[in-house]
Every structure is written in structure tokens, then in C-alpha cells.
Amino acid sequence: MQQAVSKPNRMTGQGARSPLAPTLGETFFLPSFCGIRMVFAVVVVAQLLAFILVLASPWQGDKWSELGLVSLFVQWVALASAAVLCVLRPWLAGLSAPAAALVSYLSLLLVTVLLSVAAAQLTGPADGGVGGVDHADFVLRNLAIGAVLSGMVLRYFYVRHQWAQQVEAEAQARIQALQARIHPHFLFNSLNTIAALTVSNPALAEEVVQDLAELFRVTMRDMRERVTLQQELDFTRSYLRIEAQRLGGRLLVDWTLKNLPLQAHVPALILQPLVENAVYHGIEPSAGGGRVHILGTYNRGVLRLEVRNPLPAQPVRRRSGGGNRMALDNIRERLQLAFGPEARLEMDQREGLYRVRVLFPLPDAGEAVA
Fold first, then answer.
1. Residues 136, 130: Cα–Cα separation, whole Å
2. CA contacts within 13 A on the Cβ side of 54
3. Contact at 8 Å (CB) between 100 and 92?
4. Which residues of 45-78 are buried (b: 16+ CB within 10 A; e: fewer)?
5. Which of 61, 69, 213, 339 fits a disulfide with 360 by CB distance 3.0 to 4.6 angstroms?
């Protein structure tokens, strides 16, 4: 159903901290080994290593017995190493990257040596060694394997961290470009509208000034902060009220909002740029205007926001600059950084409508109220 663009409550609340804000996990190259997912990954990788060691072993005894012993020892070393890194991580984060890497490397080697010696002592001298291998050779072999694997793992985490920082830096640059991309024609038209309303309707002119100030306030805030979904919807309504004063009856807006968690925190500027593109590329070029349809649903922990606008009857050559593509790419990249591969931005054209939708998980959104 068609919904009037109503006056929202001003966004006076402070945004929640975004995953894009600097945290220990982002400023330090070692991940947290305290979480259940990382522990599970360590167990799986350690078991694969045990299989490889058994297959490469020259021992001619019972391979299944050997696999059991090797798996037990490798898991012992892997979990103990993860526990040491889990405990040392807050302290290591205060060191420089080379110093933290060196201390981590030496810690892993120390764990490997201590557990190798303990395993050798527990097996006793009855069979002359561990798995047919002399105790000293057993310790030295494990130390050599541990030195190679520890170096590879630490190098992987470091390179992965550097890559993630580069991706985030590029995303922040694109976010800043989006913040600076308020079309000059929109600003000039808004000021002309305000000037005209100042004479004919001063009260309405004051509201448009407030909406324009709100627009600039939000676009100039730190984009790493999040806002509530209610604030994002209110900000979009502020933008639409300004455009409604300029386009008049040419701009019609339908809102379909169902079961939305309005107090859930989402990245800022994920809906308004989509609506702006719909007005700029769909409504403004059409002589008779058109209808923008904004849909929002929340189901099974996934928020879906969709914007539909009519396609102009005749293709209109717009000013160059790639603003539409930049805004869409920016939103897609920010959602990927915030929510990972579960976040999606989709576009399609059918039945004379251009549709763009964003979907991302909000598992802890709380009770839906709209």
C-alpha cells in the first residue's frame, strides 16, 4: 500500500560499533585460538597431518596402531600449541609484528620439544624408542617438522592479515568516496526548493532545511559505526521528502515493511543510496515520473531490503561518473566485510522494473516490531 512520507524522529542515538572499527582481531595478525571454530579447525588440520605422517612413515608395523599413536601425539601438540597462543595472544598483540612472530614461533617449538620429550619418556625404553625410532631421533624429527609447519602457519596468518587490511583500506576509501558523493545537482535543486518555499510556505521550508541538514550529518559521520534500522529508514524518508518537494506528483513512494527488527544495528547508508539511484535513474528521466517501491522483510534471521523503480521509456544519457555502479559496489563491499559471504546484493530487470535488493544475516536482531 502507498505510504505517506512521514516526519521521523531525529537520529540522536549513537551508532553501535561496527566490525570495521579497529579491534584486537584486526590490528593483530594472529587469530584467536580460544573460539570453538578455531579449535575445531586445529583438530581437523592436525588429523590430516597425522594421516600424512603415517602414510610417509617407513615403519612396517600395524598402520592402524601407528595412526592411533601418531594422531594422539599430533592432537596433543596441536591443542597445546593452540592453548599457548590463546593465552599469549593479548600480550603478543602489544609487541611489534616481527617480535610477536618470533615469540610465537619459539613458543610453538618449545611446546613441540616438551611434548616430544614427554611422549618419549612415557613410552619407556622397552621397544628401544617410539614407533621403532630412537628417542633422540624422535624429538629431533618432531622439532624439524614443527619448525617447518610453525613457520608456514605463522606466515600464512601474517599474509592473510596483510591482505585483509588492504581490502579494508580499499573499502574505506570507497566509503569515503560515497560520503563525498552528494550530487551537486541535488544540492542546488534542494537549495532552490528551499528558497521558493521560504516565500510560499516558511514552515515547510524549515522542515526541508532540517532534512537537508540531516542528510549531510549522516553522510559525514564515521561510516564504521552502525545505526539502527529505524534510523536508516528515517534517513531515507528525509531524503525522499526533499525530493518530493522538488518532483511533486511525479514521485510516488510505496513502503512495504513487514516484521522488521527496527532496533537492530545495520551498516549506515545501505538503503538511501539505492533509493537515490531509483529516483535519479528511474523517476527523474521519465516525463511522467513514476513510483518507487521500497520493501523490507525479516525472516529466519535474514534481513531483506529491496528497491524497485520503473525503467524510463527511452534510454536517457546521464552524466558520466559511474555513480550508480560505485554506490552498488560500495554497498556490496561493505556488506561483505561486515557479514561475510552470507551477505548479497542482487539486481535484475523485469516487467519494466529495475530491482535491487540486499540480503544479510541479523541473527541477534531481537524481537521484530514492524
1. 10
2. 20
3. yes
4. ebbebbeebbeebeeeeeeeebbebbbebbbbbb
5. 339
Cβ pair 208, 239 in contact under 8 A: no
- Residues recorded for the chain: 370
Write out the three cell numbers for 93.
598483540
Three-state SS at 287? coil
The Cα–Cα gap between 307 and 292 comes to 7
The answer to whether the beta carbons of residues 112 and 80 sit under 8 Å apart is no
> How far apart are the C-alpha atoms of 108 and 42, rounded to whole Å?
14
DSSP letters spanning 355-366: EEEEEEE-TT--
Residue 323: CB atoms within 10 Å: 19
Question: Residue 193 to residues 76, 88, 115, 288: CA-CA distances in angstroms?
Answer: 72, 61, 76, 20
Query: C-alpha cell of 125?
Result: 625404553
Q: Where are the beta strands (DSSP E) in 218-286?
A: 226-228, 251-258, 265-267
Q: Which residues contact 17 (CB under 8 A, 6 or more apart)?
A: 224, 225, 226
Sign of the torsion formed by the C-alpha atoms of 281, 283, 288 and 293: positive
DSSP state of 249: G
Q: Please give the chain's pLDDT, 370 residues, in tens.
A: 444 444 444 444 444 444 434 444 457 788 888 888 888 988 998 889 888 888 777 665 666 777 888 888 899 999 999 999 999 988 988 888 888 889 999 999 999 999 988 888 877 554 444 444 567 888 888 899 889 999 999 998 888 888 878 877 776 676 666 555 555 556 666 777 778 778 777 887 788 788 777 766 666 665 566 788 998 998 888 888 888 888 888 999 999 999 899 989 888 888 988 998 898 888 888 888 899 999 999 998 899 999 999 988 766 555 444 556 677 887 888 888 778 888 999 999 988 899 999 999 987 665 555 5
Cα distances (angstroms) measured from residue 239 to each of 90, 194, 253: 45, 14, 12
Residue type, 206: E
